Amino acid sequence: MWKTVLILIFTIIVVPITTFYLDEPLTALQKTVLSQLVALYLALAIGCFVVSTLSKNYSQVDKLWSIAPIFYAWIVAWHAQFEPRITLMAVLVSIWAIRLTYNFSRRGGYHLKFWEGDEDYRWAVLRAKPEFQGAMRWTLFNLFFISLYQMGLILLFTLPILKAMNGAPLGLIDLLLSAGFIGFVLMETIADQQQWNYQNEKHRQLNAGKQLTGKYATGFVHDGLWGLMRHPNYAAEQAIWLVFYLFSVVSTGLWLNWSIAGCLLLLVLFKGSSDFSEEISASKYPEYSAYQKRVGRFFPKLF
């Protein structure tokens, strides 16, 4: 696990720097905006580290995952004087953010005491692993991966909006990309709702002292979109930010530019995150291994 963590930390440093220096230089305005975004990122990351360390709740970054991009996007839009493409991108980010924030909120992620709220079950599992035993090891992991890495990734996958400043005029392709973006948000919404319905009914039956039968006997959602992909919500989330990157391609005419770093690193993160989630699921549910063989991870199996 530590090897994976070190690789992720290494990539979030090397990939953005490499792509940045291989691309066209930033304009003076873009440099100014980027410095403000980085300052905000550092403040949020350090805040998450301090709050999580004091509260022992390590889902502080999760609370900001859908909120921070709103601030990043609209800061860029304000500096760009609300040029059409940038404003459109900021609106799309806001739509995504409102939907995801609602989903996180109904699962108990937020609390009036902001440092409290439901913690992702995977952090407790990870803390129990031998390689994370010892206060210093977990503190370093919390600082460099949970706080700095994840908050940095949130900034990076939002940065295509900065690259898109002062680009080509808004056109038909932008509208098609917007439709794709909304479509993937809808897909993520449906997947989350299907999981929500399944888990609520499963726990209702368990709390009533009933024996789980039918599709609830497996213990995990495996129908609807989940019958086509094992992680349809993850697949949609990755697709959303790949589409978001394409706005910068349309704006600049460059298929590869430095703002691609965020969506690429997001793919790496979701691969590792889904590996860990499936390791836990396979240990809890006897039928999960067969489900893995039958259903694709992020894409439907054609054969």
The number of helical runs is 12
Give a count of the beta strands, DSSP E runs of length 2 or more. 0
H/E element order: HHHHHHHHHHHH
Low-pLDDT parts are: none
Taken from the alpha-carbon principal axes, the silhouette is globular
The largest sheet is: none
Structural class: mainly alpha
Number of domains: 1
Distance between the termini: 32 Å
What integer value in Å does the Rg equal?
A: 20 Å
What percentage of the residues does DSSP assign to strands (E)? under 5%
Mean pLDDT: 89
Proportion of helical residues = 55-70%
Overview of this protein structure:
- With 303 residues, the protein is mostly helical.
- The protein has one domain (2-294).
- 70% of the residues lie in helices and 0% in strands.
- It has 12 helices and no strands.
- It has helices at 2-22, 28-55, 60-64, 68-79, 84-106, 121-127, 135-158, 160-163, 172-207, 232-252, 261-284, 288-294.
- Helix 1 (2-22) runs antiparallel to helix 11.
- The mean pLDDT is 89.
